[in-house]
Amino acid sequence: MEYSSTTVFITGVAKPAKDDPIANDYQVFFLSLVVDKETDMIVDATCNTARDMTKDFIRSLLVNRNLATELGDMVTDIRRRFHGLAQKPLIVALKDAYNRYVLLGKTGPEKTSC
Q: Residue 99's domain is classified under what CATH number?
């Protein structure tokens, strides 16, 4: 898949619960988002889960949402609709990705020439 030049890749991380199968394979739960900087819309999402269905469901909760203005609504939807073991790490990772996006700012870091 190709992404527009206005998109950025952001990752949020969280520690999974000990009883979550993710903890056996990975020491961290990660959520990766592709966000359009011009609109703040999430255009793609993925995460490390034990099942593809879980990843697909999480993606459906996040894609086409505005990262800058809908964080609270996304968290509410996750709490209401996603009852997997990774619910808490997913929320923490989403907030971490949001914080990284805010630090990036609208224009991102300026490139310097050599």
A: 3.90.1010.10
